[in-house]
Amino acid sequence: MFSFFYNGRDDVRREAEVRSDVRKMLLDTLIWLWLIAKSMFFRIPAFVQLPPPKDQDGGKMFPYLIEERESSKKLSRNPSPKRSLANDDRAGDTINRLGQNVFTPRYQNSRSPVSSPPKSPTSKKPPKIKRESMFDYKSEAARKVEMIARGREERRQKQADERAIRDQMNHLEQNNPNWEFEQMINEYKSSLDFRPLRESDPVVENQITVCVRKRPLNEKEINRRELDVISVPTKNQLIVHEPKQKVDLTKYLENQHFRFDYVFDESCSNDLVYKFTARPLVKTIFEGGMATCFAYGQTGSGKTHTMGGEFRGKQQNFKNGIYGLVAQDVFRYLTHPKYARMNYSVSASFFEIYGKLVFDLLAKKQRLRVLEDGKQQVQVVGLTEKVVNKALSNYHYVCDMSILRRTRTL
Ligand SMILES: Nc1ncnc2c1ncn2[C@@H]1O[C@H](COP(=O)(O)OP(=O)(O)OP(=O)(O)O)[C@@H](O)[C@H]1O
């Protein structure tokens, strides 16, 4: 309450004091008004922005949770944090003038200052982000949570990949201990240009012809996962893939190339082998020459199959072996007008060389001696020789001989 009195000089002094008090009060009032106005204009709008706008999917309170969920969905496709944020247009990303990806929370208006994301998820100290409001603070936390989640997800993915590779290797190793060499051989074979021997290829007549025949892996070998180490790229080339290991246990192949007159791959039939090997010899003997056909190879390599005939189970088809095919051609030549008048006769003898011993297969495996005569010619003393009148007799002898001789089938 204020009261005013007017009384001479005292009254003048008192009036001056009252005026000064009033001025002070007015000044105080103005300061208070200014403070109230300041708090209204600068603080209250910050709370007016609460709560943040709801998500399309149905209202998450905190935008960083939305960001985290969306980024973890995209994690596998966008391993880079920069790309992940850049692709998420809902997160309000923008590209600044320097070409950097900047992140703006969705609820901020365009005038709000933007903050830069950390340059790399692996950097130890992410750059300090200038916080303008409480939501800016949350977006920074969101980024950290997102980075941790992404790192964890990447670690798990890497571990899962490593485990899958380990499992696959173990599985391969268990099923096939030679799988690495097999892969190397297959890779090598895939780089080759295969042009094997064909029926239509010309038969070259040589004084000596050296050939090699590859037989396919049999069932036991396939079950044992053995390696097919032979490749026949052309009609006269053969490659042996030799598995090797260095001192540091690194596996590698040594591919050795060989050349022969003919190389028969596993798909060749006995007829084809005969055409290029023994057939020219039959013609030679009818023209007064001498010929020898010699099959050599380790046990189980296919000598009997080639010379005696293909097996159908335990039955051998003698007609389709080299002996049978030679017999057919010999009797065909005998009836040929060119040779019919020469009165040739055909006789056969079969003996087995077993180590240092020789046995006569047409005389109940009687032991024979091999000696040199006066002309230094090797003679098998006492060897039985039987005249053969037709090819059928020859098959019969071949059959008998095959039963008698010693074999060891793998
Ligand atoms: N080219 C081929 N195609 C299919 N199977 C084959 C081939 N060559 C050989 N075989 C098979 O391989 C097995 C062994 O062959 P074979 O008996 O001819 O060997 P071998 O060299 O005569 O053995 P041994 O010296 O012990 O008498 C047989 O079961 C035979 O059928």
TrEMBL record:
- Keyword line: ATP-binding, Cytoplasm, Cytoskeleton, Microtubule, Motor protein, Nucleotide-binding
Q: Keyword check for Cytoplasm, yes or no.
A: yes
Its GO biological process annotations read: microtubule depolymerization; microtubule-based movement
Polar residues compositional bias, start-end: 97-109
Whether Transport counts among this entry's keywords is no
**Kinesin motor domain segment(s):** 207-410
- Which positions in this protein are listed as binding ATP? G297, Q298, T299, G300, S301, G302, K303, T304
Which residue intervals make up region (Disordered)? Answer: 70-135
Family matches, as Pfam families: Kinesin
UniProt GO cellular component terms: microtubule
Q: Where are the transmembrane segments?
A: none
Q: Where in the cell is it found?
A: Cytoplasm, Cytoskeleton
Q: Cross-referenced InterPro entries, in alphabetical order?
A: Kinesin-like_fam, Kinesin_motor_dom, Kinesin_motor_dom_sf, P-loop_NTPase
Please give the chief subcellular localization of this protein: cytoplasm
Record GO terms (molecular function): ATP binding; microtubule binding; microtubule motor activity
Which family does the record claim for this protein? Belongs to the TRAFAC class myosin-kinesin ATPase superfamily. Kinesin family.
- In its UniProt entry, what is this protein called? Kinesin motor domain-containing protein
